[in-house]
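Please check this one:

***
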Amino acid sequence: MLQQDQSEAPEVKDLAARFTDRVWNHPEPGPVDAYVTPGFVGHFPGTPDVHGPAELLRTAADLRRALPDLELRVQPGAGGRPGLPADGRHRYAAR
């Protein structure tokens, strides 16, 4: 079992929250480039792999068009780690 240094937990949660908000909730090129390297490969169910920041931005923008009321929020999950499990209401929250 991995032991997490509790002093890093707030920093990790803040990073996950900023990434989620700036990439998925408000997709714009600058923030995506700040969080995703050109070598990024995203594997999302039912879609081809997403390569690099530009494709991730396009994927996030497509998702926003399909589900304009979608809001992703990072909340503590199992063991206090940040998570985004689906709750079925186009909002993603840990229970």
Observations:
- The radius of gyration is 14 Å.
